[in-house]
Prior knowledge:
By secondary structure, the protein is an alpha/beta fold. The chain folds into 2 domains: 4-179, 3-Layer(aba) Sandwich (Rossmann fold); 193-395, P-loop containing nucleotide triphosphate hydrolases (Rossmann fold, 3-Layer(aba) Sandwich), CATH 3.40.50.300. It is built from 12 helices and 16 strands. The protein has a 7-stranded mixed sheet with strand order 1-7-6-2-5-4-3. Helix 2 runs parallel beside helix 4 (99-110), helix 8 crosses helix 10 and helix 9 packs antiparallel against helix 10 (318-332). The longest helix has 15 residues, at 318-332. The chain starts with a strand and ends with a strand. The protein binds adenosine-5'-triphosphate and magnesium ion. Adenosine-5'-triphosphate (ATP) is lined by residues 92, 96-101, 126, 204, 206-207, 209, 228, 230-236, 268, 388.
Amino acid sequence: MAVSYHLRDLPPGLYQVYPDSPDLIGRLSRALRAHGLRCLVFPLQLADYLVADTVRRETAFDLENQGVTGSRLSEAVDGIIRDSPFHERSCQAPNTLSGGEQQLLAITAALQQPHEFLVGRHCFDFLSTRNMQLIEEHIVGHEKRMLAVTYHANMPGHEQSSMWRINGEQLEELTKTEMEASLPEWQADIPQWRLIAAGVEKTFETSGFALLIPDLVIDKIRCLGIFGENGSGKSTLADCLTGIEVYAGSLTAAIPGTESPKLGYLVQKTGNLSQGLSIKDILQRFIDHERISRLDGGRIEQMLNDLPEYQALAVQDARLGFRLVIVAALFAGDYDLVILDEPTYGLPTWAVANFLIRTIEEWGAKPLAIISHNRNFLAFFCDRIIQMENGTVHEADF
Ligand SMILES: Nc1ncnc2c1ncn2[C@@H]1O[C@H](COP(=O)(O)OP(=O)(O)OP(=O)(O)O)[C@@H](O)[C@H]1O
Ligand SMILES: [Mg+2]
């Protein structure tokens, strides 16, 4: 029999609530407050919860707010950092942490607050399975309940923990069949490319992280998958490849028929960049930089407006749907290789997969690289998959 709890009687733990809907967070927090339960609602982008200039000060902030000061504060912060993944990085600026590390820090800091409940949307979309388990242990250890709205267990065949749905003030466990979604057959003729690295070295002094790729050639890639733990260097690799980060050595994508390929890049941490922007505004930026023509801009807008997948996502929150506008522009635009860092953030995996297939059908296939924590998403699209481990590249074990 399916398990069900009244919100009031929920045992401590992490509850992934599915699916998202426009007023879900509002309804949850109103129901909790009606029973006198204190609840902390995270901002849409979890990283926006972080306000201090170092990991240590961020951890102290929530305790200071409760009147903990002096040596008591110092001891408490030492204890929290010692038990967290940040024990050697207390001086690092939170905005330089990786996407997943930022989500971890926000929840670690918020657990010091007196609220019984933490509530948020898409709080774990950047987290590795290992860190999900770690955060779950911390939540239980603090005797808190976290209700996290997510889409991410929603991929056929995905190994998953329990998923829940809210029904009035009841939290009901969902069965696997209630979340099943099917993916279409897919085949695309993506041109082959090569990734070549020689003497690549990128070190961040404040965190001590180093990306090191002495010598690497990966041949005959169509779609490259990049997998790995939080903080292993996936986004840094993409930043170096695209030239956003300065590094030593040489890292190139060799694409037949192009001397100096143009790389189109959907970055992971877009922050508030998209707040208040419409599809038109985002496309205008591509037009201004002469990456897409005005005509293409109109065509993309038309395509998005005609796509039920996009409408369903954009209606949820323009700040989530806008990532797909960028994906469409990268395929339509003057780019030779498209790199997508966590394209499924905040969105149902199957819908993003469908959207990508439709976009490729409409605009043609391009050499592709995808960074994701979702094994099934990578396995579906990628023919070669690498795994980052502490700044080094390995063959992935899929
Ligand atoms: N500007 C910076 N200064 C200091 N350290 C940094 C900076 N940028 C990244 N780092 C550190 O480098 C490491 C690799 O970061 P990166 O963003 O590449 O990880 P990732 O594999 O993409 O992780 P995630 O899965 O969480 O997105 C992290 O430990 C991060 O804290
Ligand atoms: Mg990353």
